[in-house]
Automatic annotation (TrEMBL):
<dbReference type="GO" id="GO:0032787">
    <property type="term" value="P:monocarboxylic acid metabolic process"/>
</dbReference>
<dbReference type="InterPro" id="IPR050259">
    <property type="entry name" value="SDR"/>
</dbReference>
<dbReference type="InterPro" id="IPR020904">
    <property type="entry name" value="Sc_DH/Rdtase_CS"/>
</dbReference>
<dbReference type="Pfam" id="PF13561">
    <property type="entry name" value="adh_short_C2"/>
</dbReference>
<protein>
    <submittedName>
        <fullName>3-hydroxybutyrate dehydrogenase</fullName>
        <ecNumber>1.1.1.30</ecNumber>
    </submittedName>
</protein>
<keyword id="KW-0560">Oxidoreductase</keyword>
<dbReference type="GO" id="GO:0003858">
    <property type="term" value="F:3-hydroxybutyrate dehydrogenase activity"/>
</dbReference>
<dbReference type="InterPro" id="IPR036291">
    <property type="entry name" value="NAD(P)-bd_dom_sf"/>
</dbReference>
<dbReference type="InterPro" id="IPR011294">
    <property type="entry name" value="3-OHbutyrate_DH"/>
</dbReference>
<dbReference type="InterPro" id="IPR002347">
    <property type="entry name" value="SDR_fam"/>
</dbReference>
<comment type="similarity">
    <text>Belongs to the short-chain dehydrogenases/reductases (SDR) family.</text>
</comment>
Length: 256
């Protein structure tokens, strides 16, 4: 059980982050939810999760595109036994047409945020004598697709950063690993479906099977619960010697 541990999950008012937060809470951890929005419903989400799992859940606003706010999130939480770096955005365009502001935002939110939160969290974990860092990378941390230059660069970057974090903590009771999901049906992916339908002139079912899940041999989306379950496993005692590596949850994508 993760009872007595505090887990901070960045970008967790939606999608994978929310799913991971739920599974960590189900396993007994107190949870800090985060996003940049700070709406009433974000705080309500925290109340509902606390009631559902009988743990403490707080919502703390921080914009992961700002290094200072990343570090402030860890400080405000007051404890950080488990850090899940999940916040992420996507933009799809050819390199020669890729908006510079989008490139900068993706590198900041999908990659640099993990540097800042990890830098702030490691001293806290060392003081507590235990720590688990789980970075949500992607199949795009191990393979590439055209038109996703910033995303693929950031995700390969986070896999490299995971390895360095693991080496710097190797002799301590701290581990750092990356989960590499294939396609998971979240708002981020749902938003891509209408565009893909238009581009390929296909209906929803066909575009999902033949375009989106083209490289996912299982032909099924992974679920946020499955990503959460993998994170809980990485926080368990059985995973004590698992550090500096990636776990793919991708229906066979990277086996192709
Ligand atoms: P999502 O859009 O549903 O959720 C993204 C989360 O990040 C939201 O909670 C959002 O509030 C938060 N966020 C965005 N910008 C932020 C900022 N500046 N500061 C703080 N929070 C911010 O997307 P998702 O699919 O759940 O993606 C979550 C992570 O999983 C991302 O890192 C993504 O790259 C990765 N991933 C997703 C898939 C997939 O198929 N959905 C596959 C592989 C990896």
């Amino acid at each position: 059980s993760l009872s007595g541990k505090t887990a901070i999950v960045t970008g967790s008012n939606s999608g994978i982050g929310l799913g991971v937060a739920h599974e960590l809470a189900r396993a007994g951890a107190d949870v800090v939810l985060n996003s940049f929005t700070d709406r009433d419903e974000d705080h309500k989400l925290a109340e509902e999760m606390a009631a559902q799992h009988g743990v403490k859940v707080r919502y703390i606003k921080a914009d992961m595109s700002s290094g200072e706010e990343c570090r402030a999130l860890i400080e405000k939480a007051g404890a950080c036994d488990i850090l899940v770096n999940n916040a992420g955005i996507q933009h799809v365009a050819r390199i020669d047409e890729f908006p510079v502001a989008k490139w900068d935002a993706i590198i900041a939110i999908n990659l640099s945020s993990a540097f800042h939160t990890t830098a702030a969290a490691l001293p806290v974990m060392r003081k507590a004598g235990w720590g688990r860092i789980v970075n949500i990378a992607s199949a795009h941390g191990l393979t590439a697709s055209p038109f996703k230059s910033a995303y693929v660069a950031a995700k390969h970057g986070i896999v490299g950063f995971t390895k360095v974090t693991a080496l710097e903590t190797a002799e301590e009771p701290i581990t750092c690993n990356a989960i590499c999901p294939g396609y998971v049906l979240t708002p981020l992916v749902e938003a891509q479906i209408p565009d893909q339908m238009k581009t390929h002139n296909m209906d929803r079912e066909t575009v999902i099977r033949e375009v989106m899940l083209d490289r996912q041999p299982s032909k099924e989306f992974a679920t946020v619960e499955e990503i959460g379950g993998t994170a809980v496993f990485l926080c368990s005692d059985a995973a004590k010697q698992i550090t500096g590596t990636t776990i793919s949850v991708d229906g066979g994508w990277t086996a192709l």
